[in-house]
Each structure stands twice: as structure tokens, then as C-alpha cells.
Design goal:
Helix content is 21%, strand content 48%. The protein has one helix and nine strands; from the N terminus they run H-E-E-E-E-E-E-E-E-E. The chain has one helix at residues 2-30, and strands spanning 32-40, 43-52, 59-67, 74-82, 88-90, 94-96, 103-110, 118-126, 132-138. It is of the alpha+beta class. The longest helix is centred in the first third of the chain and has 29 residues, at 2-30.
Length: 139
């Protein structure tokens, strides 16, 4: 009886080790996917970033941004990242000026000489003079 339990435990441990090492190899080859999203009055945006296998990676990004209020204001979205020194990098804004219930989508890439150690997005509603009315951030 004891021998059967020990053998079963050994088989289970071997199977677990194999599945962990296989999953790790797959993630190392393809990188991680990061999904961020947030909404503020008048705007909702999200981002998916793929190929994030380490700080030196060039990540593929898809932004989606929707204007949710008929107020005549544009909405915008941008990538924010932290580098190896903990400094935040604010990337250029992408703007949707199409009006309520209209969605804009962008596909792009990002990399940074000091690394991408954390990534997030900011979504904002913009006044007619270009100043930020309100915003949200999701890390």
C-alpha cells in the first residue's frame, strides 16, 4: 500500500514538473499579454500588449478608444511605462474626435532604451483648448 502511494506521488510530481517546464518555455518564446483598460466621464479606452517577454522587448500594442458622451469634447489615450530606474515615460496621445459612441483603434509598437518594466494606459477627455478635462490611469 505504501509503495503504491509513493509511486503515484512520484508520477504526479513528474507530470507537474513537465507541465510547468512546458508552460514556461511557451511563455518565454511568445511573451506575455498585458491588458489594461479604464473609463472616465466621457471616455473609455483599453490596450492589449503582446510579445512582452522582458524589459528589452518591443511590444505590439492595440489601443481602442470610445467617446461615451455627446459633449463636443475629444477623447484620447496613451501608453505610460516605467523604466529600469522607476521613471515614468508618458507616450504621445492618440485622439478620437469622431463624437459620441464612435470608436478609434490603433496598432503600434513600443520599446524603450531603459526598458519596459511596467506598462499602463491613460484615457482622457479633452477641452476644446486641448487641456485635459478628466482622466484615468490603469497600470
Amino acid at each position: 500500500m505504501t509503495k503504491k502511494i509513493i509511486t503515484a506521488a512520484g508520477v504526479l510530481a513528474s507530470a507537474l514538473a513537465l507541465s510547468v517546464s512546458t508552460a514556461g518555455s511557451a511563455n518565454a518564446a511568445t511573451g506575455f499579454t498585458a491588458i489594461r483598460g479604464c473609463g472616465t466621464t466621457g471616455a473609455y479606452g483599453d490596450m492589449s500588449a503582446t510579445n512582452w517577454h522582458g524589459p528589452e522587448a518591443t511590444i505590439n500594442i492595440k489601443f481602442t478608444l470610445t467617446d461615451t458622451v455627446a459633449d463636443g469634447n475629444s477623447v484620447r489615450i496613451r501608453l505610460v511605462s516605467k523604466d529600469t530606474f522607476g521613471r515614468i515615460h508618458y507616450w504621445p496621445w492618440r485622439t478620437n474626435s469622431q463624437g459620441k459612441d464612435k470608436t478609434s483603434t490603433w496598432n503600434t509598437t513600443a520599446s524603450h532604451t531603459n526598458g519596459l518594466f511596467d506598462i499602463g494606459i491613460q484615457v482622457a477627455r479633452v477641452n476644446s483648448d486641448g487641456s485635459t478635462r478628466n482622466y484615468c490611469t490603469d497600470w
